[in-house]
Design goal:
Elements lengths: L15 E3 L2 E3 L3 H23 L3 E2 L16 E7 L2 H6 L8 E7 L5 E4 L4 E2 L1
Antiparallel strand pairs: 1-2, 3-7, 4-5, 5-6
The structure holds zinc ion (ZN).
Amino acid sequence: MRPGPSLLKEEQLPGLRTGGVTIYYSKEGLERIRKEAEEYLKKREEEARGHNYELEDGTRVLCIYCRNAFFHKGTALLNTRGMTFLGLDWLNESAITLICTKCGFIHWFAKEVKQV
Ligand SMILES: [Zn+2]
């Protein structure tokens, strides 16, 4: 028997043919690949769905328009000249935006919001 990677010690499963090279995976190897793919897809799904956020006092952020609880977080620059004109120049130069993943409504925050 040819010595090989420990991956091959169990029964050999059908290989993947890739450009003339056949790659064999053990059950463990396939399981690991499956898990990695699952985690990757789950992460992509979560990214698409958005995340939950709450204010400093623990209030859960809900979309004021559609009551959805999932958002994409971003930052936006505030127009300092405009803010001064409006008497709001105490605001930071950047604000936090939470974009509702359902209806797209953009919520603006001058304070930190944290992902939960
Ligand atoms: Zn919404």
